[in-house]
Design goal:
By secondary structure, the chain is α/β, with parallel strands linked by helices. It contains 5 helices and 4 strands, in the order βαβαβαβαα. Helix 1 runs parallel beside helix 2.
Length: about 160
């Protein structure tokens, strides 16, 4: 069975894109290998995103904030799909991605910007996690070898 590489992009690569990487990599179908990166990566993964990724069973040694430049080199894993998960990253000029991967934008508000007590913040991260989970689940049910950018965008409307 072919594994499809998915790169989740966000500006700082500390929350949403990390959750996408963890969800794709631990998806029950075994169809995906997730990766994540940011245009201006932060210094660390948000603690709540780290906790949720750990609860999914994601390898903690892979949790680090990375630049998208790591995935645009000729030695990088070839991506099948590239998904931006924040509006800011979607508007930035992206590097050239070898292999012409299918691209899409799945907009999610930044859970790390939520104000309030820890339970409100945790809920925002769980909501983002569940939204990403729904879209990845929908994606897993599609004919992956026949997808194009337009049909990948439609995952947003079906999830």
């Amino acid at each position: 069975m072919k594994k499809y590489n998915i790169l989740f992009l966000c500006t700082h690569n500390s929350a949403r894109s990390v959750l996408g990487e963890a969800l794709a990599s631990t998806h029950h179908s075994g169809l995906f290998q997730g990766f994540s990166a940011g245009s201006t990566p932060g210094d660390e993964i948000h603690p709540i995103a780290r906790q949720l990724a750990q609860e999914l069973g994601f390898d903690q040694t892979k949790l680090r904030s990375k630049s998208w430049d790591e995935y645009s080199s000729k030695d990088a894993p070839r991506m099948d799909f590239i998904i931006t998960v924040c509006d800011q990253a979607a508007q930035e000029p992206c590097p050239f991605w070898p292999g012409q991967p299918v691209t899409a934008h799945w907009s999610f508000p930044d859970p790390s910007k939520v104000l309030g007590d820890e339970s409100h913040k945790h809920k925002a991260f769980v909501d983002t996690l569940n939204g990403l989970r729904n879209r990845i689940e929908t994606l897993a049910q599609m004919p992956l070898d026949k997808l194009d950018s337009m049909s990948l965008r439609e995952v947003h409307t079906k999830a």
